[in-house]
Design goal:
Number of helices of chain B: 9
Number of helices of chain A: 12
Bound molecules: zinc ion
Number of strands of chain B: 6
Mean pLDDT of chain A: 92
Structural class of chain B: alpha/beta
CATH architecture of the largest domain in chain B: 3-Layer(aba) Sandwich
Radius of gyration of chain A: 24 Å
Shape of chain A: globular
Order of helices and strands of chain A: HEEEEEHEHEHEEEHEHEEHHEHEHEEHEH
Order of helices and strands of chain B: HHHEHHEHEHEHEHE
Number of domains of chain A: 3
Number of domains of chain B: 2
Oligomer: heterodimer
Strand content of chain A: 15-25%
Structural class of chain A: alpha/beta
Strand content of chain B: 5-15%
Chain lengths: ~450, ~220
């Protein structure tokens, strides 16, 4: 078998010239009066035509344009990997008893090819919990994809998996990747890249399954479905499953493993809601809600560091000014697109500043050992249920400081806020049963 | 609700009181406000010869080096927005994006004084892969004459992947089609191209047009 065949294993690849003995499939085909792309399975718009009236697909354009004249070639996945006899897991870390129990359950379900969800709170160490199951799958000669809708998650994950499975060659795929595609047993890729695959994977691990845009994109959900072998299964990882996944769990359509406790065994801090009428109007006149002022003053007295979340970038400056009037000047504002973002986060880590006023939950893995959290306008639509739970998870990350406050100042008690409170309560109920401490 | 043709986000059309009294369907823009705001045309501060956006109105350094009389007008600076546009339209081949620039090209052509419009051609290989000429895609019924052809052999690599030095040394890639002289003789010709980078391509084309007997040749590009 040549290299070009390898390129086609379990994939749908447009080629200008047909390889020997292969027949291509038309990439954009007519269905009734419309045209459907055979890579992303979306309908082309009525007017999405090239000059000779040739339909083309705009939905997956950034993977290379497909038209009604393009042919896609594929070779069914042969699982042509070197057999691994010993466990490929070279990770030397130790799972806690609770993590090990979760890992055991995940592995047992993999052995029966059961699709499942691992619902682990932020800070539970969900990546490592998957290692024993992944090691087993690789040993069986399974082709595995570890995918996430977020490219930063993929980039952070690839070196960790390379170190944990030294003998397993991996392919890392995302838009603009510097290294060309290669046929490998372990593929780490953005969910978007799965569009190029066709019944390739025995196991697909979806990291942050609730993250944008996967949760709301039929295109990406279809990509997941088609990239998985008919005999394959998937493992979803999340800290905050959306409504739909929660419904599937409730109806017992999806097997689930809970890890409601963080690695140190403490419960999540509850989300407290305080009503702050018309806080935007107050802020416009340079004042913060009274309750918030009291909370922050108390922190200042005992030199307690904190994060103050605000809904919009435009809120950062007035909040900083209002804080300065209260004598709180040892902090900085930071937002997602801030060019000095990394430096400011580092300042907070180093203790050079005492607080951050921010719009974002910052990168995955960015943790501050001992912080309290206040949210101004937690009822604003920018804060999803998942975001609120993630924000709560920023508190008490360290073994030595496992507790803390999470207070949201809202104009009204919205559904998203109530759902976040409910999710934390639910996780803590399970955590308590496992011996978690409040 | 319509989606923005360029970024795909929904277009929100604020309805004014005047609109409510306006009978019939309201015209919906094809791109959203944010995308429109990304497109900032070149203002009055520009090079009088090549149309480049700059602080002064003096001839720019590049034009000093050419030291000739070829004049070009450009609509946009070749900034991040235009690069993103060209990436999707030309290099990814999203022919629909021609609609974004059609009204702007129409207005710009109306400001030019010319008799014959000549778009810069693409090679046969590009026709096969891209399937359209990115320049003629912007035209909406304006008459033009395809009097130039471009040979594939003399255009081995795409212009955009060359260094300035390499681009300047490119040999003449254009030739005139049979009968071009009857179209060009004594006429004011306007060349239309996508991006003016070094000016090499347009000058090669202009040289051939002049050989064809044109009285004058100028250029118009989407970006500089
Ligand atoms: Zn498609
Ligand atoms: Zn737009
Ligand atoms: Zn100039």
């Amino acid at each position: 078998m040549t290299d070009t065949s390898e390129q086609l294993y379990g994939r749908r690849v447009p080629l200008a010239q047909a390889p020997a003995k292969l027949t291509g499939q038309t990439a954009v085909v007519q269905v009734g009066r419309r045209w459907r792309c055979q890579r992303c399975h979306q309908l082309a718009g009525e007017t999405d035509r090239l000059p000779q009236n040739v339909p083309y697909c705009r939905h997956c354009l950034n993977l290379g344009r497909l038209t009604a004249l393009t042919k896609l070639y594929t070779i069914p996945e042969p699982n042509r990997f070197r057999m691994v006899t010993d466990s490929p897991l070279t990770w030397s870390g130790q799972l806690s008893p609770r993590q090990a129990a979760a890992a055991e359950q995940v592995l047992a379900r993999l052995k029966t090819r059961t699709s499942q969800l691992l619902w682990a709170v932020t800070g539970a160490g969900k990546t490592e919990i998957v290692y024993p199951g992944l090691a087993w799958a690789l040993q069986q000669g399974w082709r595995v994809a570890w995918t996430s809708p977020r490219v930063d998650v993929c980039l952070e994950l690839a070196p960790r998996l390379a170190a944990a499975f030294t003998g397993i060659p991996q392919a890392v795929l995302y838009g603009g990747q510097p290294v060309p595609y290669a046929y490998r047993q372990l593929t780490i890729c953005t969910t978007h890249q799965l569009l190029r695959f066709d019944q390739a994977f025995d196991l697909i691990i979806v990291d942050e399954v609730d993250a944008f845009p996967l949760a709301t994109s039929p295109l990406l959900q279809g990509a997941l479905r088609r990239a998985q072998k008919k005999t394959g299964c998937h493992l979803y990882l999340t800290a905050t499953p959306g409504e739909d996944l929660q419904r599937q769990i409730k109806r017992r359509r999806l097997a689930v493993t809970y890890l409601p406790l963080r690695y140190h065994g403490y419960l999540l801090p509850p989300l407290t809601v305080k009503i702050a009428w018309h806080w935007p109007d107050r802020l416009a006149t340079g004042r913060l809600p009274r309750g918030l002022v009291r909370q922050l003053r108390a922190y200042r007295r005992r030199v307690q560091r904190f994060l103050l979340f605000v809904p919009h970038v435009a809120d950062i400056a007035p909040v900083l000014r209002a804080l300065a009037r209260l004598g709180m000047t040892h902090g900085v504002g930071v937002h997602a697109a801030d060019p000095q973002r990394t430096a400011k986060v580092q300042q907070m880590r180093d203790g050079a500043v005492d607080f951050l006023v921010t719009t974002t939950i910052l990168e995955r893995g960015v943790t501050f050992p001992n912080v309290m959290v206040a949210i101004l306008g937690g009822d604003d639509p920018v804060f999803s249920t998942a975001a609120l739970v993630q924000i709560a998870g920023r508190v008490g990350r360290h073994r030595d400081f496992p507790r803390g406050d999470v207070v949201s100042y809202c104009q009204s008690q919205t559904r998203t806020v109530r759902r976040a409170q409910r999710m934390i309560r639910q996780l803590n109920r399970r955590g308590r049963r496992l011996g978690g401490q409040a | 609700m319509r989606a923005c043709l360029w970024c795909g986000r929904p277009i929100v059309v604020p309805v004014t009181l005047a609109d409510i009294w306006h009978w019939g369907p309201l015209p919906t823009p094809i791109i959203c406000r944010a995308c429109r705001q990304r497109l900032q045309p070149i203002g009055s501060a520009k090079c009088p010869q090549c149309g480049r956006q700059q602080a002064t109105v003096q001839r720019c350094h590049d034009c000093e080096r050419w030291d000739d009389a070829f004049v070009n007008h450009a609509i946009f600076p070749y900034d991040a927005a235009l690069k993103a546009y060209m990436q999707q339209y030309k290099f990814q081949g999203d022919y629909q994006l021609r609609l974004v620039m059609q009204p702007l090209i129409r207005e710009a052509l109306a400001r030019e004084h010319y008799d014959v419009l000549v778009p810069i051609p693409i090679t046969a290989a590009t026709w096969r892969t891209r399937g359209f000429n990115q320049v003629t895609g912007w035209l909406t019924g304006q008459p033009f004459q395809q009097v130039l052809t471009v040979s594939a052999a003399s255009k081995p690599r795409d212009q955009s992947s060359k260094t300035r030095q390499e681009r300047l040394q490119t040999p003449q890639p254009f030739s005139l089609v049979a009968g071009a002289a009857t179209v060009l003789a004594g006429k004011r010709v306007l060349l239309l191209d996508d991006v003016y980078t070094t000016g090499r391509t347009l000058r090669h084309a202009a040289a051939q047009i002049s050989l064809g007997g044109a009285q004058a040749v100028t250029g118009l590009t989407l970006a500089r």
